[in-house]
Design goal:
Number of strands: 16
Strand content: 15-25%
Bound molecules: pyridoxal-5'-phosphate
Radius of gyration: 21 Å
Shape: globular
Low-confidence stretches: none
Mean pLDDT: 97
Largest sheet: 7 strands, mixed
Distance between the termini: 41 Å
Order of helices and strands: HEEEHHHEHEHEHEEEHEEEHHHEEHEEH
Helix content: 25-40%
Length: about 425
């Protein structure tokens, strides 16, 4: 048995947590193990996981198939360098990704985290135009409300106001921001599509690319928009000679009800980022895919190589598990499972809409969101969820859940009750 008090003391003294102060203010829970959709927490017992460890653990924890893939690969080699060497897990994974992603994406850069895959995507765009003799095309356009990671270039395309990076205004490269996309999967505002066209046209001479999260803006606010804007972006980018990047790090692998959010629109971007659930939540790996147009453009440059090569690029262990995770996903009727979870969440979150301090309740695919009219009282909300037997991690004004696809109906209902309890606890703590 681990000494929980000691772990917490050492944690508080030495360990940074995501978006946390040092020392931490709120005591974290100590997880001892995880299996299926349950986390075993010291001093608490089992909690149903409502977060999939930030969109990633789509098959749940400690999955026998993924464990076997990891063990099998571990016995061969856990890592070798990728410069001058290659191996089956990475090559087979790349082929799977090319086959699954929208038609036209042919080349794969395996990065070690989502943020790095966005760095690579932006580098591809800028280098493409530089190689074609148009180095002045070096800005990116995005819409407000986005999130693309925490390293330097991705920070610059995150929402400039509401985001976590507003501290760095004036330090980050200045990118071009279109208005927030209107809310709602089924809502379409032609005037907004016109606004996108306008902005892209007006800045085309200095734009290397447009980068957006398709259909769902995740950590920037859990907002959903019409896939038709993706088509508008594709048309505007084609008309004005600008590259289009989709960041599917959160939306990829079925979460929104389509395998990739781009599939809702039938649009192929020039560059696409994948991460989070790529390895089923086991290991850190991400991918940047691009079309032959982008790769050929870069190859024609004075510097014909893409100068990027992380030490752990193509990590065999992560690649083997990613391959197994994709096979596991495609080997089942995942669409039915995602729909089932969405239906369960819609029913279970409905009571939240009755609460006076709830602004909006929305569900898309296997993602459920309750938006409050105030900043969530984290301590009160998390404690209420834990009392309801569920792990949730709200942020800003949002209490949200994206359960593993293997979550049973009873557990989906429990998660929904916990989200409602967390909303109530936050509203009451504030009153
Ligand atoms: C999480 C996320 C990232 C960053 O990925 P990391 O692996 O955390 O670096 C980038 N874009 C989107 C849309 C994300 O959800």
């Amino acid at each position: 048995m681990p000494d929980v008090k000691e772990i917490l003391a050492l944690d508080r003294a030495h360990v940074w947590h995501p978006y946390g102060p040092m020392p931490g203010r709120q005591e974290p829970l100590v997880v001892e193990s995880a299996s299926g959709v349950r986390l075993r927490v010291a001093g608490v017992g089992e909690l149903v996981d409502g977060m999939s460890s930030w969109w990633s653990a789509i098959h749940g924890y400690n999955h026998p198939v993924l464990n076997a893939a990891a063990r099998d690969q571990l016995d061969r080699m856990s890592h070798v360098m990728f410069g001058g060497l290659t191996h089956e897990p990475a090559v087979r994974l790349a082929k799977r990704l090319v086959d699954l992603t929208p038609e036209g994406l042919e080349h794969v850069f395996l990065a070690d985290s989502g943020s790095v895959s966005v760095e690579v995507a932006l580098k591809m765009c800028l280098q493409y135009w530089r190689s074609l003799g148009r180095p002045e095309k070096r800005r990116m356009l995005t819409w407000r409300g986005g999130y693309h990671g925490d390293t330097w270039q991705p920070m610059a395309v995150c929402d400039p106001q509401g985001g976590m990076h507003s501290l760095w205004q004036g330090v980050l490269p200045q990118q071009v921001f279109a208005d927030l996309p209107p809310a709602g999967f089924d809502a379409y505002d032609a005037a907004y599509a016109e606004h996108l066209h306008d902005m892209i046209g007006r800045h085309a001479h200095e734009l290397a690319g447009v980068i957006v999260e398709p259909v769902v803006q995740g950590a920037g606010g859990m907002r959903v928009h019409s896939p038709r804007y993706l088509r508008a972006l594709r048309e505007a980018c084609d008309a004005h000679d600008v590259l289009l990047v989709f960041d599917e790090i959160a939306t990829g692998f079925g979460r929104t009800g389509a395998l990739f959010a781009a599939d809702h629109a039938g649009v192929t971007p020039d560059v696409m980022c994948l991460g989070k659930s790529l390895t089923g939540g086991y290991l850190t790996m991400a991918a940047t895919l691009c079309t032959p147009r982008v790769a050929d453009g870069i190859a024609r440059g004075e510097v014909p190589v893409l100068a990027h090569g992380p030490t752990f690029m193509g990590n065999p262990l992560a690649a083997a598990v990613a391959g197994a995770s994709i096979d596991l996903l495609l080997g089942q009727d995942w669409q039915t499972e995602v729909k089932r979870i969405g239906t369960g969440l819609t029913a279970a979150l409905a009571p939240a809409a009755e609460l006076p301090y709830v602004r909006d309740v929305r569900v898309l695919g296997a993602l459920g969101v309750v938006q409050l009219d105030h900043q969530v009282d984290m301590a009160a909300a998390t404690a209420a969820a834990v009392r309801a037997g569920v792990w949730l991690r709200p942020f800003r004004d949002l209490i949200y859940t994206m359960p593993p696809y293997v979550t049973g109906d009873e557990d989906v209902a429990a998660i929904g009750r916990a989200v409602c309890a967390a909303a109530r606890a936050s509203g009451e703590a504030r009153a």
